[in-house]
Known about the structure:
Layout (H helix, E strand, L loop, with lengths): L1 H46 L20
Amino acid sequence: xxxxxxxxxxxxxxxxxxxxxxxxxxxxxxxxxxxxxxxxxxxxxxxxxxxxxxxxxxxxxxxxxxx
Length: 67
């Protein structure tokens, strides 16, 4: 019975170490994805059209029709 307790404790410690490793990897992945999202957002802002809607007249005051 002593061997089974030792095996159970050993398995629990192994799983705990594995979970810690997985959490560290998930955190690193999240940081990497956040960084990429920030860079993509900056890139999209730099190439976005800067057109404005017309404020007077009958054309362009209701729908922005820039392509």
